[in-house]
Amino acid sequence: MNQPNLIILVLFYSRHGATRKLAELIAQGVEGVPGCDARLRTVPAVSTVTEATEADVPAEGAPYVELDDLRDCAGLAVGSPTRFGNMAAAMKYFWDSTATEWLAGTLAGKPACVFTSTGSLHGGQESTLLSMMIPLFHHGLMVLGLPYTNPELMTTASGGTPYGASHWSGLDGKKTITEDEKRLALALGRRLAETAVKLRAAA
Ligand SMILES: Cc1cc2nc3c(=O)[nH]c(=O)nc-3n(C[C@H](O)[C@H](O)[C@H](O)COP(=O)(O)O)c2cc1C
Predict the structure, then answer these.
(1) Residue nearest atom 9 of ligand 1, based on CA coordinates
(2) pTM higher than 0.85 for the full model?
(3) Domain range enclosing 116
(4) Residue 73 lies in a domain
(5) What does the DSSP 8-state code read for residue 42?
């Protein structure tokens, strides 16, 4: 009997589009794995002006994530631009709304990975990727990186790390995704989806 396709949630925040491009590549990597569908979702911006509210539906692009997306997914990729060496407040704010799912173990045992984009090459890709893993560990997700069997990890002069996919967008945010960054983002999406398939087979 045919099993339904696994849903791999690719959850990201992107203010200027660089992290969104990585999210799309990771989703492409996921879709390359038979039996897996990528579901792209974003989170609303947060404001220092407490009265400000966002519309329920974004003006364009991926819909806002709902808690059901966490329940539905068999794997999860999380991406955020680097903000002072850490994830953006919008993504942290989302995680702070997931206490019920944390207590219920909704994500426990599912595979996960992380990705980011920075303005400067040494401006905190690794610290952002590592700190984005922390709420994932608390949720019981099984966090994956990229192995050095991906030769681009040795040669990249832009983004791409063993901790996750990354992009160096430049000070004006106009640098395009390099071939190394692209290959590593695709590989990460593929690895995430393949792991979800293996876990289903082993269950
Ligand atoms: C408040 C703020 C803090 C930032 N902090 C950093 C940083 O610590 N290191 C860095 O390299 N870039 C930093 N940046 C630049 C963004 O990480 C970079 O432009 C990123 O590619 C934006 O991604 P996006 O296009 O998905 O929004 C910061 C940008 C903002 C607005």
Answers:
(1) 123
(2) yes
(3) 6-202
(4) yes
(5) E
